[in-house]
Amino acid sequence: MRHPTPELASRHETSGNWLPRLARTSSFRLVLLYTGLFAVSVLVLLVMVLWWGSAYVTQQTDEMVSDEIGDVQAAAAKAGSGGLRVAVTDFSRQAGSRDRYLLEDSTGKVLAGNMPHIPPVPGAITWYPTSSILNFWPLASGVRGAGIRTDDGDFLFVGLSTFALNEMRETVAQGFLSVIGATLLLAVAGGVVMSLGSLRRVEEIGRAGQEIVATDLNRRIAVRGTGDEFDRLALSLNAMLDRIQALMEGLNQVSGDIAHDLRTPLTRLRQRLELAYRRENDTGVWRQALEGATRDVDAILETFAALLRIAQIESGSQGIEFTCVDLSALMEELVEFYSPLAEEHGHTLRGTVEPQLRITGDSELLTQAFSNLIENAIRHSDAGAVAVAAWRWGDAALIEIKDPGPGIPKEFRGKVFQRFFRLERSRTTPGTGLGLSLVAAIALMHRAEVEFSDYGSAFVTRVLIPNTAVPGPLVS
Asked: What is the pLDDT of residues 97-110, one digit of tens each?
């Protein structure tokens, strides 16, 4: 049974139902999350508003009931004996749809009013016509009032229907629920629109990535120029692709250069050994062959050691811990160390170093990098003065190495950091072509910049190292 390729499966998923894919997007889930939080917040606010509103309306009702009881008692006092019964009857006759009055004797018999018998409980109460669990429902219809005991043992109750309170609650609840409904609808619609846009961008990046892997490594992901997170992601991926492409090209170049550079010493080694084999009775030839073979093997080992060192620095696998480096002392020591070599090649080496230059870095690696640069200036320049200078440059340290030239031609300055690249294409002079590659790796680890320039007839190499350099991922 044949299984679909990843590209075919991805294409099938893209052309299929978009709803499941939309629901799995982080933007849609985030919109739903915040919509849910907003809905819960609105519900909490609704409960609080209903609570406060109900308390306010209840307080106003209790005050009105208290005033109404006073009016009933005043009317009863004017009516004389039996006046309370007369007053309640008159108030009940004139009552509106909300007003409730009740007068009971001590046995619970209704004497007057427009309400049925209720338990004679003095104080403020809410009375419901029927006893049911639904009485706890906020919109249940009842009577809010207060009862008192009269001097002759009768029970007087005056109340108001809770219709206004229920109407307020219903209006507030409907308003809040309408807001929640509209919010949920708009949020889901907005989430769908946002998620579809995000999904399209993600799929564009995914398709571009698949095409790059399958067909063209030179292609890059399109950047719209909006500066959003997708543009930043595309820029990061493009930088990663640039790095991968450079590494692949470097790998191809290194493979060919290794074969080319090692072929010569291996060929010489074989010739010497073959010559010694043919003249097995000549001790002098044997000694010369062994000495030459040792030099060839040393050159091969030096090449591999340099390659290994560069790989360790670029990968950070050697666990380097940066410390405070006295760059002034380091450069002065190098100038003193290379002065004899400079004299052998007809140079004068002088140094101008600003004191107390300190940076964060690896002293051993920096020594190796500047040693390579100073040694190149001595070995590959005309006779004359070689100057080494170091001074503070803002928040960085600037190191300058100036030699009499001829230096590196401008057309090759972008290539000299490649492994095994040599200006002398015949490769007959000593060297591995890895010195500047090692310098580039060390500079990259220290976030330093290396540049070449011409100064009259002199050639200048400048290295700018930040004072606060810290180790981190290597980027090109």
From this structure: 788 899 999 888 99
